[in-house]
Amino acid sequence: MRKLEIAICDDETAIQEQIKAWVVQEQQGISPKLYRSGDSLLADGTKFDIIFLDIQMEGANGIETARMLRERDEEAILIFITGIREYVFDAFEVAAFHYLLKPIEEQKFRQVFCRAVRELEKRGNQRRELLVVKTKRQNIILEKGNIYYVESRGKKVAVHTAGETIEVYSSMHGLAGQLGTGFYRCHRSYLVNMAYVAEYSHESIILSNGAYVYLAKEKYGEFVKAYMRYLRGQAAGNSI
Fold it and tell me: Is it the case that residue 238 has pLDDT exceeding 60?
């Protein structure tokens, strides 16, 4: 696996240094970048693999910082640090991977960090699952893990990826079969990658890149069950 980019954002120097020491013990050769505020982390612009993020900080707090990271289409694994257990529920809004309560226990840190590394490895494997689609002029090979959602456009289908939108000749039904169980047909015109679901209501789904898609009212119950099954599958040995 490539060298990881890791950030530690906490306004307490002692906690920064402790987490840094534990990371270095687990992943030799890595030097985490340290930040004392969410504002300084956001200003850096580096795309990180794992971010340890304190919730209570001056300026942009951890939850606000995480929202802005998600709006920038960043997929970093977020591990929140907090001294107040109640804040943990806010972490779900921004697709947090886990949380650590202060004072941080070394054994708990190692468990969470190792799970985060395994999650990165799994994401890498998922991205290597390929999908071949046909446009007007050529066949294009896409990584399934890079697809946010698929949208019906009459006789064509628009595939929205992390970097571009591609119009292809296919049916929604055909693509749903090719993409598999990680995707859900939430509306006759939309197919979403459940890995990127950030929020949902009875009428819509918001993805982690800010995209808004419709959720058919009659499919709400079925979607919730499918999404919960998906999360349980992801949580087996990985999440909170």
Answer: no
What's the CATH class of domain 130-235?
mainly beta
User: What would the pLDDT profile of 150-160 be if each residue is shown by its tens digit?
Assistant: 999 988 899 99
Please determine, looking at this structure, whether the domain spanning 6-125 carries the CATH number 1.20.140.10: no
Residue 6 has pLDDT above 70, yes or no: yes
Residue 52 has pLDDT above 60, yes or no: yes
d(CA 189, CA 74): 26
The answer to whether residues 35 and 8 touch, using CB atoms and an 8 Å cutoff, is: yes
Instruction: Indicate the domain borders of the chain.
Output: 6-125, 130-235
CA distance 188 to 216: 8
| Sheet with 190-193, edge to edge strand ranges | 165-168, 156-161, 147-153, 190-193, 183-187
As given in the structure block, the two tokens for residue 201 are: 């209501």
Residues across the chain:
240
Distances 47 to 33, 60, 70, 93 between C-alpha atoms, Å: 12, 18, 11, 20
pLDDT band at 237 (very low <50, low <70, confident <90, very high): very low
Residue 43 CA, chain-centre distance (Å), reads 20
The answer for residues whose C-beta is within 8 angstroms of residue 191's C-beta and 6 or more apart is 149, 150, 151, 172, 175, 176, 179, 183, 184, 185
